[in-house]
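Hey,
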Amino acid sequence: MANQKKKKLTPTQQEYQELALRRQPARPMAMNCLRAYVIGGLICVFGEVVQQAFVHWAGMTEKEAGSPTVALLILLSVFLTAIGVYDKLGQWAGAGSAVPVTGFANSMASAAIEHRSEGLVLGSGTNMFKLAGSVIVFGTVAAFLISLIHLIFEYGG
């Protein structure tokens, strides 16, 4: 309960909380970590295979192949979200499916799909940035702070 610290529980509620805790099945933490590690690693390996394919078959450099690789991973994760595969993968793999590019695309696409009945602007357009907006804001702030720290240590000392 999120409000458990703010609200005093009655003795009956306390008994219920204790009973619920005793009855709650143990979570297979080691297996969940292994699944997340394997799936996250496979997504990253797939991205590397795609990038190397662009390098070898499209004649690109490693740096040039980065952008089309990211674009392809985004398109593929949005497609898999649209047909319902990525969500099932996420339920099974947990955090492993939240690898930055594909997980971010999945969160935006699933929010847009979920709210499409509310309209293009007020439904999909607005709701897809509820989760993604915080990621963008905190990512930008973190990047700024890290670059500031780098600048201080690089040129300040």
